[in-house]
Amino acid sequence: MSIIIFSMMAELLSGSGIANGLAVGIFAAMGDWAILLTPQLSAVFGALANSGNAANGLFMASQVSLAVEAGFSVPAVIALQHAAALSLNMVGPVRMSIVCGLAGTPGREREMYRVMLPFAMVVVGVLFAAAILIISGVI
Q1: Mean of the pLDDT values across residues 39-58?
Q2: CA 124, CA 101: separation in Å to the nearest integer?
Q3: Could you tell me if 6 and 57 are in contact, meaning their C-beta atoms sit under 8 angstroms apart?
Q4: I need a surface site. Which of 6, 75, 85, 96 has the fewest CB within 10 A?
Q5: Got the DSSP string for 23-82?
Q6: Phi and psi of 137, rounded to 5°?
Q7: pLDDT at 3
Q8: What is the pLDDT of residue 118?
Q9: pTM (2 d.p.)
Q10: Cα(116)–Cα(120) distance, rounded to whole angstroms?
Q11: How many C-beta atoms surround the C-beta of residue 10 within 10 A?
């Protein structure tokens, strides 16, 4: 049901022109560098929602509009958005609780986050590098 709701929200954002207006505003404020911020935002939102569906439903239309506005490769920006929305799910609060519960160590999520932080930072770095490759026209 949540996938359907986020898909409907994406259609509304796209059809109403909100996604395009948001992309134009972000592009006007940040220029080509807007593509560096938006995947990171999607990654954090995906982790908090424990799913890429919410981030993709809310941000995909804006990302496509941003790609068109900036002259970036639309398929590359779509791939980056999708990967970003799913990338930090492994360190989402719900998953950490499930993992600690299954491991028989409930309440030790903080320790688990300390262990997982380097992996999450690598993911953020890869997203950042991919965005730079898109901005520079390599992808």
Answers
A1: 80
A2: 26
A3: yes
A4: 75
A5: HHHHHHHHGGGHHHHHHHHHHHHHHHHTSHHHHHHHHHHHHHHHHHHHT--HHHHHHHHH
A6: 85, 5
A7: 67
A8: 93
A9: 0.77
A10: 6
A11: 19
Q: Are 88 and 123 in contact (CB under 8 A)?
A: yes
Q: Where in the chain are the domains?
A: 2-135
Inform me whether the pLDDT recorded for 105 exceeds 70. Answer: yes
Q: Which residue, 2, 66, 11, 6, is CA-closest to 33? A: 66
CA dihedral 121, 123, 124, 129 (to 10 degrees): 120
Whether residue 51 is predicted with pLDDT greater than 70 in this model: the reply is yes
pLDDT, tens only, 2-36: 667 767 777 777 778 777 777 778 778 888 788 88
- The answer to whether residues 65 and 81 touch, using CB atoms and an 8 Å cutoff, is no
Task: Say how far apart CA 124 and CA 20 lie, in whole Å.
Answer: 26
Concatenating the DSSP letter of every residue in 5-31 gives HHHHHHHHHHHHTHHHHHHHHHHHHHG
- What type of residue is 114? R
